[in-house]
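call fold(seq) -> tokens
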Amino acid sequence: MDILVAQIQADLRSNDALRQSGALLQALQQSAAGRDISVIAKSAVEEIVAAPASAVCKKLAFDLIRSTRLTADLWDSVCGGIKSDLHFPDPDVTAAALSILAALPSNFLSKFISESNAEISSCFDSQSDNLRFSITETLGCILARDDLVTLCENNVNLLDKVSNWWMRISKNMLDKSDNVSKVAFESVGRLFQEFDNKRMSRLAGDKLVDTENSVAIRSKWVCSMIDFVWSKRRSLMARSLILPIETFRATVFPIVYAVKAVASGNSEIIRKLSKASGAPNGSVVDSNAERFVGVSDAVSHLRPFLASSLDPALIFEVGINMLYLADVPGGKPEWAAQSIIAILTLWDRQEFSSARESIVRAVVTNLHLLDLSMQVSLFKRLLLMVRNLRAESDRMYALACICRTALCVDLFAKESVRRGQKPLAGTDIASLFEDPRVREDLNSVTSKSLFREELVATLVESCFQLSLPLPEQKKLGMESRVIGALAYGTGYGALNWTEPALEVVEVCRPCVKWDCDGRTYAIDCYLKLLVRLCHIFDTRGGVKRVKDGASQDQILNETRLQNLQRELVKDLREVNTPRIRARLIWATAEHIDLEGLDPLLADDPEDPLNIIISNMHKVLFNIDSSANTSNRLQDVQAVLLSAQRMASRNTRAGLLLTKELEEFRSNSLADSVNKHQCKLILQRIKYVTNHSETRWIGVSEARGDYPFSHHKQTVQFYEAAAAQDRKLESLVHNATFELWRPNPSELALLLNKGADSTLLKVAPTAFTLTGSSDPCYVEAYHLADSGDGRITLHLKVLNLTELELNRVDIRVGVSGSLYFMDGSPQAVRQLRNLVSQEPVYCSLTMGVSHFEKCALWIQVLYYPFYGSGAIGDYEGDYAEEDPAILRQKRSLRPELGEPVILRCQPYKIPLTELLLPHKVSPVEFFRLWPSLPAIVEYTGTYTYEGSGFKATAAQQYGASPFLSGLKSLSSKPFHRVCSHIIRTVAGFQLCYAAKTWHGGFLWMMIFGASEVSRNVDLGDETTTMMCKFVVRASDSSIAKEIESDPQGWLDDLSDGGVEYMPEDEVKTAAVERLRISMERIALLKAAQPKPKAPKSDDEEEEEKEEEKDEKEKKDEEKDGKPKGPSTLSKLTAEEAEHRALQAAVIQEWHILCKDRNSKVN
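ret:
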């Protein structure tokens, strides 16, 4: 390897362009093989970049630089070489030099742009197509990035230059060279995409905190591009048509984005964000007609490519963008229809197979843009396509779209018929899902595919989403049409969603017979919807009549639901999943109309009541299935409760169930709890039958609840079916919420609400790491990226001396779980030419390997005696100088001299930074809490002003001060699961859930109880809050990290608001409090009244109380019975506590009333 490196370096030193290019190719080959080529890179910088060389060699040298890491010295040399090349007579060499700008670090880039802006601007006017291409491509990549926005925010001159360059790039879209025109279109498209989603900045690892200024800067650029494209749209369309067909695709997005922004009114909102005063000339749109003509022109421009093109990628790009335009106000369904047909043709031709998911997603998300008949005709085909998708998340999202469309079509068609329009065949849900394969899947008992479970669960969840209030209509985005269609169909009526839900319940009825290998989630969803509908339609009361005020539709719907119930009762015999039988019994027995059954069929085995009771018998006397397949304890409980409620409603049911329960009670299968329960139920049935005239005694109202879940009662034992159920539930919920209640992007929020300060993030607080008398001032803040598992440290270095420091090195070491990406133990940033009092910024990024305390250790080395004569200072004429002299001058190195070393305070990363909020329901939280193995308990205290009572009870508005020590928890990455505040005694319980970046769970409960401080100063009373923190984690290493430094963890949680109290101190304080209380009680007991001394008021009251007690005691002895509650009765601890709490509540009520009266007065 050493011989090879020496050979490459020798070739680089030669003046032969062929040998140099060969050596660079060899070096790139070694780099691709993963070998360290930093020595060769150094030679390449010195011999190729910073010296005259051919364009090919320059290009290869820059590729080599990109594949390795350079020191600051070498970057200096690179910048010097590029500056020289900008004046080089050969434009190809200049073009090659410009291409490396995108790889320059941010601090070098800003300096370079500031110093060489005139040369860069002159490149736009060059006669060479290659140079214009290179400058447009390079600046198009750089100028859209986050780091450049940050630089512009801090430098007004730079902002003006960059804004001018964007205008030059936009004009290059009309350039005479095809290549330049294409790359200019791409650059403008990249700016628009970056404004929408910042994909490029994320890939580059930039971490920009959006401030108002940075949003305004980007908005200003986007606005100027939109104005240019709109004003020159006809010229740009004409220019794109004479480009080669393979480059036409790049021109589609920029034109469509700008046209849609103007037509939908987005451009005006973007202009407000950019804080520009008034619109520039020529960009004001006169009327809606002009906007619509602009959109029509764009569609007419794109439409021919859908039919005539043979390139699948081009058809897809044009199709997607035409769908984007079909959504503007005045957009036509035909535009969407043509696009969707073209995209589906790609599927049929089996081309573009790598984008199967993208094709389906594009079609299903834009289905609402088509007219009703087209949606119906495509429906079955789309169902089949979705079924064949491999990726689960894509399949579930597409399925959610299809289910929403089905509900939309059904509602819309019915409402149109009500309004007198001609009915359209096949719009009801039963017809939409009558595909033979789907029907076969739903009706077969066993099936290998999970698709049918996904379909039923998604349909039901979509019905529940429809039952909630629809989200507000937004001006922007494609969702407005769907919400409009649903609102039209439901007429904003509270119960109009029940009609499509009733059809869903009928279509999915066969699911109760399925055998799903123990999985129950889909069937549970189905039964939950069924129970909700039965409760809403009140099926217990039978079908309502016209004279009761029922409409014809209501009578029809109730009759259908009654018939469905009877069918489901018959299906009880064919249930194949043991856990489902008890649940189906509950769902039917709770809501069936027992009074409406025919008394003449009482002995018929087909009578619904007889079928239900025979199936109850099966569950109670079930000895076949093991505990794994059926949760017998839960099933028996459910059946006994159903029996009690059903027997209370109907006499015949009571008689039949009495016999069943007597038999079960005497059987060995019933344990002692079941026997006692049966005894209680039998007594209730007997009481109800004896008091039949007061019917309301035993009748319990149906609540519409479905008290079952696919979650097992215990989590200690892993079971495959339960795990699959949980996975399916999360997939269905995520897809449904993403579609029905999507989280709006930051841009959408900004566009909807304007530059509202709450939406713009505040930059993190910077911490000072140096002392007050240090010659360099260093402050730092960090940004965490949980997605990539990285932390980026941003440093600001300020030279406080009066000298200009030519060179300052920042060394950064890491401890704990941090590591540098290249595996080196420390990072070095070399800063040059620090002018007095002028800040210099630099940043570095580290990875996080696991959950552990970590810190960064920073040293500043500055060289006050650093010499001059660096490479960049030499500017010779390449033609006249001797190459040997040049090489000798380049090899001159400045003297470093002795550095001054400044050690900074360590920068600690809070442990909470390595957490993410974990959204979980309270039920799930308490279900899983006992199963988290690692546990840590500790106590913390903080003080707050005001008594606990005043802080909680008397404060009707605003936040109570008694949680003041924990207020910073709201900004930490924890999900607040639930909280319970005891208002009378200023106590609380808070539950939080989080997970680490690496997947471990960390859940926390905080219990608080306040105590009045004994040393009360003048003024407001201060009270101490004692908090018990209980942390449970899925991994012992997480608990150990917290346990090793409780005070540090508390500081991370509360920003220093809570103080850790060791356990021995807690115990000592408790013992001390108990001792003081006992002493007081002893003093009270020992105090005897002196007969001759003059009595004070307090003593008189005590004497009266004692006389009263004695009198009560005598009365009690006389009657032989206690007279109500006596002061001498011996209370248990629980009773005493209960009475004290009652007294506190009454006292609180009095104070509240007093406060209210004083406020009124």
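The first helix runs from residue 2 to 13.
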